[in-house]
Structures are given as C-alpha cells and as structure tokens.
Amino acid sequence: MARQEAARLGAGEADAGGARHDPWLRRQDRPRAEGEGRGGAGAQGRLPVALRRDRQAQRREPPRRGTNFVLAGRDTTSSALTWFFWLVSGQPDVEDRIAREIRAVRASSGSTDAAAFSFDELREMHYLHAAITEAMRLYPPVAMDSHCCQNDDVLPDGTFVGKGWQVTYSAYAMARLEELWGADCEEFRPERWLDEDGVFRPESPFKYPVFHGGPRMCLGKEMAYIQMKSIAACVFERFSFRFVGGEGRPGLVFSVTLRMEGGLPMRVKKRRDSVC
Ligand code: HEM
C-alpha cells in the first residue's frame, strides 16, 4: 500500500515536498525503509486515515505538517480526558488524592493558585500521571488499531503474518486480560502504576499499546500528557465533579477514537479547600 501511495504521488512530488531534507518528514517515511527488513513489517497504521492522506500532502507542502498534529492530538486527548473525569468522579478518594498532590506541589514550588502549572510542577504530579494512565488503560482513545503487512513476516511470538494481511490489536481488550494486568484488571486503580515511593512506573508499550509501540509510536505522547495533566490539575485544584448521567457505565462509541455516548453531564462544585 505504501508503494502504491508512493507511485501515485511520484518520487518527484515527494522530494519536491522537502522530505529528503527534513528530519521530521524522514521519520514519517521511516517504516517504509524498515519494512524492507524483518520486524518493521512495512505496516501502515489506521489512525487516522486522514493523517495518512495528510502525510502525502505534507510531502507537497511541509508547512501543513501542523495539521497532522491537530488531527492526531485533538480527539485522542479529549477522549482520554472524558473517560478520566468520568472514572475519577466515581471514586472520590482518587479525586481527593489528586487534589492533595496538586496542593503539595503548589506548596513545595511556592507558586500561586492563579498561575498555570510549570513543566516541573506537572512532572512532580506522579499520582495524577498514574490516574490518567490508568484511565487510558481501561478506555484507550485508540481502542483498536490495524496495520497492513507489506511483506511476509513473523511476529515475536512466532505467529506468521503474510504479505497483505491485516493485523488488528485491541488495547481495550488487552486491558481486560487477567494474564496481563492481574485479577483486578477491570478496576480503575491508579496505584498499579506507582512504586513503593509513589513514583510513576511505566510499562512496556507492548503491554500498554495506548500510544502504539515501535517505530510508528505516537509522536505526541509527551505533549498529550502535558496537555491532559495541566487541564486536570487546573480543574481539580478548584472544583469537584459528580457524574449525573445515570447509573452504570456510559455507552461506548467505537469510532476512530473511543467516545462516550451521550456526553459527560457533571455536577460541578467548588472545592471547600480551594483558595481561589
Ligand atoms: C491521549 C492522547 C493520544 C493518544 C492515545 C495517541 C495515540 C496514538 C496512536 C495509537 C498512534 C499510532 C497510530 C498508528 O497505528 O499508526 C499515534 C500516532 C501519532 N500521534 Fe498520537 N496519540 C495521542 C495524542 C497525540 C498528540 C497530542 C499528538 C500531537 C500533538 C499526536 C501525534 C501523533 C502523530 C504525528 C502520530 C503518527 C506517528 C507516526 O506514524 O510516525 N498524538 N498516536
């Protein structure tokens, strides 16, 4: 498929877009080269189809690469935060612990409540990081991802994958496998991401493929965490939330990103301990 795209585009067109000189665009082309050998599989992602089309456009017009980031970054982070706020609203103890951590970080850095959080302050919020990571484990914004194999290949577990086969994995289903996450795999438990000192402990992307893994892993992961943590920290510093959309889990809408049926109706209360 990659070759067909390249043929459609024409090598001249691709180069005219500046891919040869631009390290970022070279990275976009990397799996094509890696697909020639074992392991790279020459796989093409599914998310989003528009993003792939946009890659073609980038080769013609590099400044449009910004569009990629908007397309890939907007719906994913909003999906993640929707499920995160819903999960936290059902566990007041988690919400309180997040609020306590925010206050502690403010106190130790000496910044005022009116100010946005600095990168250093956000980095100190290990529990919040764990809670967002745990929410995305259970409700991954990209719940299923498909790649098309460009050449015959063998997966690390020995499974043969033929040229042109479609390989799909479900991060949503993987989160519910006891052999991966233990008997409490269906519980929202941010603590599973913390070591005994309360420091965030990451997992292999092949166990937690929320941002995909390997050479085509999400380029915006760090930016996504900064966005999500600063929004969550600003909001939980001042407000408390209770879901008012009824009992039970809201319906799942499987589109390119995992959406919540019926939106996220919340009752918002100012926190008693909020000083602003
Ligand atoms: C919670 C938020 C996010 C999640 C869960 C997420 C997840 C993913 C996943 C699963 C892929 C691989 C898709 C494939 O199969 O090819 C991907 C790719 C990508 N993401 Fe994200 N993403 C998030 C946020 C962002 C943000 C904020 C940006 C940019 C500002 C971004 C930029 C990209 C780009 C450029 C790619 C393509 C990488 C490549 O093919 O080399 N993402 N993302």
Identify the notable features of this structure and list them briefly.
two-stranded antiparallel ribbon, Cytochrome p450, heme binding, globular, mainly alpha, 8 strands, oxidoreductase activity, acting on paired donors, with incorporation or reduction of molecular oxygen, binds protoporphyrin IX containing FE, membrane, 46% helix, 276 residues
Number of helices: 11
User: Could you state the CATH homologous superfamily?
Assistant: Cytochrome P450
Which small-molecule ligands are present, each listed once?
protoporphyrin IX containing FE
Report the average pLDDT across residues.
80
Biggest sheet: strands, sense, closure? 2 strands, antiparallel
- CATH topology: the name is Cytochrome p450
Span of the ends, CA to CA: 55 Å
Any low-confidence stretches, pLDDT <50, length ≥5? 1-55
Strand content: 5-15%
* Total number of distinct structural domains: 1
CATH architecture verdict = Orthogonal Bundle
- Principal-axes geometry comes out as globular
Strand order of the largest sheet: 1-4
SSE pattern, N- to C-terminal: HHHHHHHHEEEEHHHEEEE
Our Rg estimate from Cα atoms comes to: 21 Å
Helix-residue proportion: 40-55%
What is the CATH top level name?
Mainly Alpha
Number of strands: 8
Quickly give the structural class: mainly alpha
